[in-house]
Write a structure and sequence with these properties.
Elements lengths: L33 E4 L2 E4 H15 L3 H31 L10
Antiparallel strand pairs: 1-2
Length: 102
């Protein structure tokens, strides 16, 4: 068997730290799945509850929730890009013509 070189990372042993939902406290064995991000985890049950709550708050059926949220995200992206262009124009002292390189 080959000895690991200095550049070969040592395999890390699996941890026995169970993953818990940050919202309900259930562990991964108690739910269908858990989505994790740095510092926070959410289980599938809490995701469903969140979607139901958003659906009720927005007054739309759950099936319409995602398309509406996606549209809102697209509008925020467009507004962000418009703000970037305004800031760039302000820094440049006025509108700048943008076109293909000559």
């Amino acid at each position: 068997m080959e000895e690991p070189s200095a550049s070969t990372p040592e395999p890390t042993p699996p941890t026995n730290n169970p993953v818990f939902c940050s919202f309900c406290g259930k562990n991964a064995k108690q739910v269908a799945g858990i989505v994790s991000a740095p510092g926070v985890c959410i289980c599938t049950e809490c995701i469903v509850q969140c979607c139901d709550d958003l659906s009720a708050y927005m007054g739309v059926p759950p099936a319409e929730l995602y398309p509406r949220m996606k549209h809102a995200q697209e509008e925020r992206r467009k507004e962000y890009l418009r703000a970037m262009v305004r800031d760039f124009d302000r820094q440049a002292g006025g509108p700048v013509a943008v076109g293909p390189p000559r």
